[in-house]
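debug: dumping io for the single-chain case to check the tokenizer round-trip. Nothing else runs in this session.
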Amino acid sequence: MIKKEMIAMLLAGGQGSRLGVLTSKVAKPAVAFGGKYRIIDFPLSNCINSGIDTVGVLTQYQPLRLNTHIGIGIPWDLDRNVGGVTVLPPYEKVGKTEWYTGTANAIYQNLAYMESYNPDYVLILSGDHIYKMDYEVMLDFHKAHNADVSIAVMPVPQEEASRFGIVVADENGKITEFQEKPKEPKSNLASMGIYIFSWPALREALISLSEQSNCDFGKHVIPYCHEKGETLVAYEYNGYWKDVGTLGSYWEANMELIDIIPEFNLYEEFWKIYTTNDILPPQFVSAESVIERSLIGDGSEIYGEVYNSIIGCGVVIEKGAVVRDSIIMQNAVIGAGAVVEKGIIAENAVIGAGAQIGIGEELPNKVKPSVYAFGLAVIGENAVIPSNVRIGKNTAVTGVTEPEDYPNGVLESGETLDKAGDVQ
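debug: decoded output
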């Protein structure tokens, strides 16, 4: 019988609705990040760098690009005969068939997968955070405390603590209380959604809670284990960790990569971030172009000016175009003389010549003020923006748009233009 000390279960089925049109056709973990990566590359790279060679990736929402990206796991050295990476979508069963309805329910529906490896420990991960972490160090902590459950936590500012699941721990790290988004938090240690379970404890909890609707780790499994008197410990992490769940935090995390000394270094030899590399020609930078403080992806052609921006692979920035404080994803085209200010331009979008994106005053978005905020202009994938139109801030545009979609050639700040039916 196969025996693995620790296997990882990576939850990658989330819709990521706060990323707006960026996730209308793609699961959040498959969204591009840092020019050539996708968000899921970070936890997958952490696994192989931590010596974990068996990873189940649980998918559900819009999984096509995620599945294609993961493939058989070659970039992460997870193409193994025993273990490796396995994509685990919901499937039809005899009798009751259901979608994954909560984080713990998704894991419960894959008990058979976990049992086939007879693990001592199971690591539960989320597929939508940017960080580097050695899970082996966390496992050593788990063993040293003889714990049933270890929760990775990180200190957050006290005033922000009510946004998180908060753990209260004694001086030995033993968790005495767990608060889910409390109004008055008793500590500032926020759960990172990274758990190590001793297999018997996880298995028993999942089976006992199998009838619980929308069964979730934070709301149900952790409190259940706590009430049973099992040993729960808090593993404190003090490195870089970013939840890129909103357009603002996603834009910010990308921009932090181009600091002179970035807080999050993508290029450390001893902790590589792996991804699927397409075979692309090198960048072409013309003699009259200007590039300052930017990351430029392979296969891109730069004829215009780029300042403080992340440019993905295969992007074309034509002559006279100016891109500033923006994220341009792979294979997008910025037309001659166009200006993009604080924009997120998704994959394969085309910005017409002379168009101006992200201009004017900042007004709240009328359709989704909490999503399309932060002063950003967001253009969805495969969108087409006609020449010479002007688009304001806190805006979202999807689909192939025509000049007549823009009254007087303008989409005012706070407006949404949805020609693809992507703005839910």
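debug: round-trip ok. The chain has a mean pLDDT of 88.
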